[in-house]
């Protein structure tokens, strides 16, 4: 028996060796940290704060420059922000003085130059930019110009053009040559020149805001010429309406001239240009100079830091030698530890893992070699585990054959059940989607007419209101006009109200049917109303035909059942009558009657006078996939679904009678369902 060794003792030796290396390295780093702290204290106390303060002053000057630039671009709030940046600059300068950060004469000289130049730059900003130019005046001037354009100039042009068009129409219809020569043609010429001058005056205001030095003179000259043409046209217009338009033109003209002069007094673009020129000169001179001085001050501070760091180079070289020596010892020790651990720990663990993996894969005759230590105990337990697995495998083999037989039978039953469920779900889904498609088409078609009437009436009503308001504005409204407008408005509103109420009723009906047909919720409902709502959703299919649908019988029958599936039954019967009963015919009649046969049952008769069903087909109508329209819109499932719903979910019965006789042809379905449907499982 080999001597037992301990893995724990070997790991403790490794731990002691690592701990000695950590202690030595800690001593070396502590010595280096002390020397770095003692040498860099002055750098942290003076040089770094000075460099940070210099960076703060550079940032403040750039922000001040940005404030001035954005102020000139129209941001009035930049003036207040500029004051904050001035305060930042002063605080940075005062911080340098309070903490005595200037350590040599060169720094002191640079700081004094920066302070003097900062004051000069601030004075230029205040006196030649912020005091000379006000973005608010420019904005107010632009508002005046926009207001003149929208409320005065455009209406003035429109009115003058209207007068010119009236004169042109009068000239075209006039047969008096003397009037054409002395009145109409001169008036047209004067009006057109007045329109040109109004446009020139608008252009003059726009050019003034764009700093055109001749814009103001041009505006004044255009206003004088406009007035000359106005005085020439005034004697030619003698009608009351013409005199009223001339008075409005004169008022708009005077407003345009007065507000234009007010704009000239409020805003002078030359002041803005002067401020821009000052800003550009500062960028090329003072701002460039102060950035250079601040850069020199920051560079001087950096040079001081470099000198301090250079003194650390010797300490760094000294500690490097110590660390390199310790690293060499550490590498030698770690290599020895790794080699020993590989032989005594890693290889046995890898062999154990490989053996366990072989056991997992099914091997049961593995020979395990191991040392006499803690890992050896694990190997012994694995050997015992191998024996237990062998016994367990024998039991599994016996169970496997029986289990395979059971699983085979189960899989066959499962596949058959899944096929049946898929077929059932697909059939139900297809029929529901078909019904919902018909419902959507019904909604679109039925509400189109009342909505279209309402839109037409509202458009006409809007036109009549505009005509009436135009007469009211001109003072031409008579009592007869007022009475006619009132009568037409009341009539239009009544028609619109009837149409919108009709659309609302249709939407309410279609909404309830859609909810019912998209679910199988059970509730109490009025049988007559539900069938009527279903018919409203499908009647659009026969709009182009002369088919008649009648719903008669007891209108107060309440039943506790499933309105959705019942609607599916009515829809399928209706589609069956249209597709098959009235095939090839433009006329036909469907009659639906409702009657209570006793206190617990109700009867629904669905009859059509179509061409009837052949006798040899009657017995097959409710069979699945039976149809005479295969490939032409028929699936052969509609009547089978009707039969399943009536006899299943609704708990009732359905029967069929049909005739193809010439004097009495047609088909009748008789449905008997209980007033209270049976409870679902």
UniProtKB/TrEMBL annotation:
Its main location: membrane. The keyword Membrane applies. The chain crosses the membrane at residues 14-34, 318-337. The keyword ATP-binding does not apply. It is found in: Membrane. Keywords: Coiled coil, Kinase, Membrane, Phosphoprotein, Transferase, Transmembrane, Transmembrane helix. It catalyses: ATP + protein L-histidine = ADP + protein N-phospho-L-histidine. Signal peptide: none annotated. It comes from the Bacteria. Residues 389-430 form a coiled coil. GO terms for molecular function: protein histidine kinase activity. Residues 347-394 form the HAMP domain. This is histidine kinase. It comes from Shewanella maritima.
């Amino acid at each position: 028996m080999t001597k037992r060794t301990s893995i724990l003792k070997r790991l403790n030796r490794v731990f002691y060796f690592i701990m000695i290396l950590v202690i030595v390295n800690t001593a070396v780093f502590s010595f280096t940290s002390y020397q770095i702290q003692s040498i860099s204290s002055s750098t942290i106390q003076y040089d770094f704060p000075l460099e940070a303060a210099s960076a703060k002053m550079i940032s403040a000057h750039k922000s001040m420059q940005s404030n001035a630039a954005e102020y000139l671009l129209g941001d009035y709030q930049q003036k207040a922000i500029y004051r904050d940046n001035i305060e930042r600059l002063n605080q940075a300068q005062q911080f340098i003085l309070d903490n005595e950060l200037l350590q040599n004469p060169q720094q002191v000289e640079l700081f004094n130059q920066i302070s003097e130049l900062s004051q000069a730059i601030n004075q230029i900003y205040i006196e030649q930019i912020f005091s000379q130019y006000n973005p608010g005046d420019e904005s107010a001037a632009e508002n005046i110009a926009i207001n003149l354009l929208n409320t005065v100039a455009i209406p003035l042009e429109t009115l003058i053009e209207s007068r010119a068009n009236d004169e042109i129409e009068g000239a075209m219809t006039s047969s008096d040559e003397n009037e054409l020569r002395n009145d109409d043609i001169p008036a047209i010429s004067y009006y057109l020149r007045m329109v040109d001058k109004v446009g020139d005056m608008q252009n003059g205001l726009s050019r003034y805001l764009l700093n055109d030095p001749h814009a103001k003179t041009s505006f004044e000259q255009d206003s004088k010429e406009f007035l000359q043409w106005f005085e020439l046209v005034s004697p030619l217009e003698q009608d009351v309406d013409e005199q009223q338009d001339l008075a409005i033109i004169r008022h708009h003209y005077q407003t345009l001239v007065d507000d234009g002069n007010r704009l000239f007094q409020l805003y002078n673009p030359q002041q803005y240009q002067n401020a821009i020129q000052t800003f550009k000169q500062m960028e090329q001179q003072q701002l460039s100079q102060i950035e250079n001085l601040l850069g020199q001050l920051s560079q001087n501070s950096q040079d001081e830091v470099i000198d301090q760091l250079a003194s650390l180079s010797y300490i760094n070289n000294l500690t490097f030698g110590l660390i390199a020596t310790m690293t060499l010892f550490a590498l030698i020790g770690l290599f020895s530890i790794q080699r020993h651990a590989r032989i005594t720990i890693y290889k046995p663990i890898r062999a154990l893992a490989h053996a366990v993996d072989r056991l997992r894969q099914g091997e049961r005759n593995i020979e395990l070699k191991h040392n006499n230590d803690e890992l050896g105990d694990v190997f012994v337990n694995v050997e015992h585990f191998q024996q237990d697995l062998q016994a367990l495998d024998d039991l599994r083999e016996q169970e496997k054959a029986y289990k395979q037989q059971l699983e085979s039978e189960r899989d066959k039953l499962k596949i058959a059940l899944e096929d049946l469920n898929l077929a059932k779900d697909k059939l139900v889904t297809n029929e529901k989607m078909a019904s919902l498609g018909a419902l959507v088409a019904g909604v679109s078609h039925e509400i189109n007419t009342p909505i279209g009437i309402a839109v037409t009436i509202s458009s006409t009503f809007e036109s009549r209101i505009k005509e009436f308001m135009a007469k009211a504005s001109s003072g031409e409204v008579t009592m007869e006009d007022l009475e006619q407008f009132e009568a037409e408005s009341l009539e239009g509103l009544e028609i619109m109200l009837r149409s919108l109420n009709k659309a609302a009723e249709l939407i309410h009906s279609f909404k309830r049917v859609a909810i019912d047909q998209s679910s199988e919720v059970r509730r109490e409902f009025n049988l007559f109303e539900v069938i009527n709502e279903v018919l409203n959703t499908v009647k659009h299919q026969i709009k182009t035909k002369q088919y008649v649908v009648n719903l008669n019988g007891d209108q107060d029958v309440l039943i506790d059942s499933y309105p959705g599936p019942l609607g599916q039954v009515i829809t399928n019967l209706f589609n069956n009558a249209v597709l098959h009963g009235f095939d090839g015919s433009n006329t036909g009649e469907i009659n639906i009657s409702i009657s209570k046969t006793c206190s617990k049952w109700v009867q629904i008769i669905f009859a059509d006078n179509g061409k009837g069903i052949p006798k040899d087909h009657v017995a097959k109508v409710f069979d699945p996939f039976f149809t005479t329209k295969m490939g032409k819109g028929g699936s052969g499932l509609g009547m089978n679904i009707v039969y399943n719903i009536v006899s299943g979910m609704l708990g009732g019965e359905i029967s069929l009678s049909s005739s193809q006789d010439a004097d009495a042809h047609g088909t009748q379905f008789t449905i008997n369902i209980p007033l209270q449907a049976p409870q679902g499982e």
